[in-house]
Write a structure and sequence with these properties.
binds iron/sulfur cluster, TIM Barrel, binds flavin-adenine dinucleotide, alpha/beta, binds NADP nicotinamide-adenine-dinucleotide phosphate, 8-stranded parallel barrel, 684 residues, FAD/NAD(P)-binding domain, 5-stranded parallel beta sheet, Rossmann fold, 22 helices
Length: 684
């Protein structure tokens, strides 16, 4: 039966599971784990932790792993790990040996990352002394000798990677890092052989590849990551991308990996509102012009999406980076016909990229074990207990499934008719459709683990006591806060829950009271018109000003974003004097702010609410009275814990613990809820 099932599955994923022959070596399938700097590279005991992290992904079936980026010299990074000598190479052996021991067929390549002008050091270097909008320092312009040193450091790093037992290297030639700044006129204003004409601007990239190949010999994987669409105004033209691809191919790259932005670009390329596989067609176009295998990436988070990209001939290999944080076993589950058990990356960036950009170790919202493989493990219990978990929101779901996985007998209650708690609100926001995947994952997990799920069941202390559970876990979530304002019960005042669930009618002019994550989501919902950009590549292209078909310079030059809007007049308000939206995610907040600004949403801080009456919302702004003559006031004023059940359990001396929003509602998000629940369930 299992053999027959496998056959069917590999038929369904025929392209995904076809090996790729590189002549001197073979990749066992078409899925690779894309490079992500996790912070483990610099962490105490980092090599052992990376070994566990990558080995788990190797066991999970991926064909090739690209490590987080490692600079070839100090000026390429800024105080972190580098790879430049045999001593450092011997540390890396801990990682390569662990991966090859986990599965000798899995290849692991080191990404050589020279961040150039984006390096976090005053010693950073670039072709010209031009400071990027997002850089900390103005780079030093490299002279001829300096250029030679950088090239030779790339080559040396590649040789050290070989010594360390890697199967190859990836050279990153995109994103606004050193190599890409040579390619583009706005960052390369040299007049010597490294600047001016495009042949000259390309010279550095080509020389790096040539010298790396020379240093490692023919039987070593060399991948070049190219900016196939850099999203820069005045960025690379399509014929320049093709010319570069051909030149690095000729210089010795055996695989080309397509990348789709510079970090300073103003188009989201991996956030949750980006359609799945949105950029794969660009790779497909480049693939037609080149002969080596092409890797595509960005928002490919499920095997059917990957298979479709390969079947269309858009790429030879699929890079999944964040999806491998979310589920290390994604490939194995696909091979075994268990796709419905995949814990899907929802592209929130909350625990991965947001952590990178705030100096924290990377993890994953839906999988808090990511990058914590040596410390957070769900070991089988030797004292199985009968547990009641009340509330099937993210906290209750995580607790119930981890506890059941460990061998506890779990009953999961929810008063609602479906699992998910507030995720059932989140998934209704345009751009957050991926949240459905998390609910599908938990639904399946509940079945697989045999959890006794009781929906439509509001429990109280008495009913729980009557069933004699060993322990009750209260995950009852939150109540929306009702601010104490004159007129708060006026008919024009509605709650965010009723708006999102479509139970309240919303007028033409609206004030949103509270500009946290939910205030922004509600503003998105009520100003949105038509199909969600996340579901339609043409809508996405129109809204963000991308021309996929004609590929003007950077894909964006001269293309004006055309935003559809419901036409509502909306003001988003908060009391704080901070910039509105400051609390949003580091790497995604700007996309939400920009979208709403383009739809004409007004944002106001320093607002003092006075009263609501038939005339509208009366406020003080910087001491000045003002009336917003609105039809509707939507309250998104935060939340308070819902802990009545816990209090009554305590009063009855029933052993109980509190998790998620019921424990602490302030600044609670799903990342914290799932993490806290998983950690506690790992211990009981
Ligand atoms: P909840 O999700 O509130 O779940 C509590 C559950 O308990 C409910 O299902 C309820 O029915 C049940 N319950 C309560 N009392 C009883 C009882 N007596 N008996 C039985 N069942 C009971 N977070 C993020 O991290 N990222 C986001 O992008 C994001 N977007 C959001 C968008 C919106 C519109 C909303 C509303 C929230 C969003 N959140 C987001 C927040 C996130 O959903 C919450 O932090 C998370 O759901 C809290 O989880 P929880 O399990 O503690 O509580
Ligand atoms: P929040 O982010 O804490 O925002 C609450 C808002 O209400 C703030 O603007 C706050 O600003 C205002 N407020 C607080 N008390 C008030 C009062 N008494 N009267 C009037 N206004 C008041 O909470 P949330 O928006 O409810 O979101 C809940 C959780 O879900 C948050 O932790 C959030 O991170 C998470 N979430 C995340 C996302 C995401 O995309 N990552 C999306 C949605 C929700 P002032 O006090 O300045 O007025
Ligand atoms: Fe994906 Fe969010 Fe996890 Fe990052 S934190 S890997 S974006 S699910």
């Amino acid at each position: 039966m299992e053999a027959a099932r496998r056959k069917v599955v590999s038929g369904r994923y025929e392209h995904l599971f076809t090996p790729l022959d590189l002549g001197f070596t073979r990749l066992k399938n078409r899925v690779l784990m894309g490079s992500m700097h996790t912070g483990l590279e610099e962490a105490p005991d980092g090599f052992r932790r990376q070994a566990a992290y990558y080995a788990e992904r190797a066991r999970g079936g991926v064909g090739m792993i690209i490590t987080g980026g490692i600079p070839p010299n100090p000026e390429a990074g800024g105080g972190g790990a580098i790879l430049s000598n045999p001593q450092e190479a011997s540390d890396h052996r801990i990682v390569t040996e662990a991966v090859h021991a986990a599965d000798p067929d899995v290849k692991i390549c080191l990404q050589i990352l020279h961040t150039g002008p984006l390096a976090r050091t005053p010693d950073c270097v670039a072709p010209s002394a031009i400071r990027s909008r997002i850089a900390a320092f103005t780079p030093r312009e490299l002279d001829e000798e300096g250029i030679e040193k950088q090239i030779s450091d790339f080559a040396n790093c590649a040789a050290m990677a070989r010594l360390a037992g890697y199967d190859g290297v990836e050279i990153i030639g995109s994103a606004g890092y050193l190599i890409s700044t040579f390619l583009v006129e706005r960052t390369n204003q040299r007049t010597d052989q490294w600047g001016g004409s495009y042949e000259n601007r390309m010279r550095f990239a080509v020389e790096v590849v040539r010298r790396v190949r020379e240093a490692v010999g023919p039987d070593f994987i060399v991948i070049f990551r190219i900016a196939a669409m850099d999203m820069l105004d005045g960025g690379m033209a399509w014929d320049e991308v093709v010319q570069l691809g051909k030149a690095v191919e000729a210089a010795g790259a055996n695989i080309i990996s397509t990348h789709f932005c510079w970090h300073e670009a103003q188009v989201p390329t991996i956030a949750t509102m980006v359609p799945r596989a949105a950029f794969a067609g660009v790779t497909g176009r480049l693939r037609k012009a080149l002969t080596v295998p092409l890797i595509t990436s960005n928002r490919i988070n499920m095997p059917d999406v990957a298979e479709a990209v390969l079947a269309r001939g858009d790429a030879d290999l699929i890079s999944m980076a964040r999806p491998m944080l979310a589920d290390p076993d994604l490939v194995r589950k696909t091979l075994e016909g268990r796709e419905d058990e995949i814990n899907t990356c929802i592209a929130c960036n909350q625990a991965c990229l947001d952590h990178t950009f705030t100096g924290q170790t990377v993890s994953c919202l839906v999988n808090p074990r990511a990058c914590r493989e040596t410390e957070l493990n769900y070991q089988p219990t030797d004292h199985s207990r009968r547990l009641a978990v009340v509330g099937a929101g993210p906290a209750g779901l995580a607790y119930a499934t981890v506890a059941a996985e460990r061998g506890h007998r779990v009953t999961l209650f929810d008063a609602a008719s479906e699992i998910g708690g507030q995720f059932n609100l989140a998934r209704r926001i345009p751009g957050k459709e991926e949240f459905d995947e998390t609910l599908r994952y938990f639904r399946r997990r509940i079945e697989v683990l045999g959890i006794d799920l009781r929906l439509d069941t509001r429990v109280d202390a008495k009913s729980l006591q009557a069933e004699g559970f060993d322990h009750v876990v209260v995950a009852t979530g939150i109540e929306p806060r009702t601010p104490d304002i004159d007129g708060i019960h006026h008919p024009k005042v509605v709650s965010y829950i009723d708006v999102i669930m479509g139970r309240a009618s919303v007028g033409q002019s609206v004030a949103i009271m509270g500009a946290g994550g939910i205030g922004f989501d509600v503003a998105e919902l009520i100003t949105h018109k038509g199909t969600s950009a996340a579901l339609d590549i043409d809508v996405f292209a129109r809204e963000w000003g991308v021309d996929f078909a004609n590929h003007p310079r950077g894909g964006v030059t001269g293309v004006v974003p055309m935003v559809a809007t419901s036409g509502r007049d909306v003001t988003l308000m908060q009391r704080k004097s901070d910039a509105v939206g400051k609390s949003l995610g580091r790497t995604t907040g700007w996309t939400h702010r920009l979208t709403l600004q383009r739809r004409g949403v007004k944002m106001m801080n320093g607002v003092e609410y006075l009263k609501i009456d038939d005339a509208g919302l009366h406020v003080l702004i910087k001491g000045e009275p003002r009336l917003f003559e609105v039809d509707t006031v939507i309250v998104c004023a935060g939340q308070t814990p819902l802990r009545t059940l816990f209090d009554s359990l305590e009063a009855e001396h029933v052993p109980a613990s509190l998790i998620g929003g019921a424990f602490e509602a302030s600044e609670l998000d799903a990342k914290r809820a799932i993490n806290q629940a998983s950690e506690l369930a790992a211990q009981i």
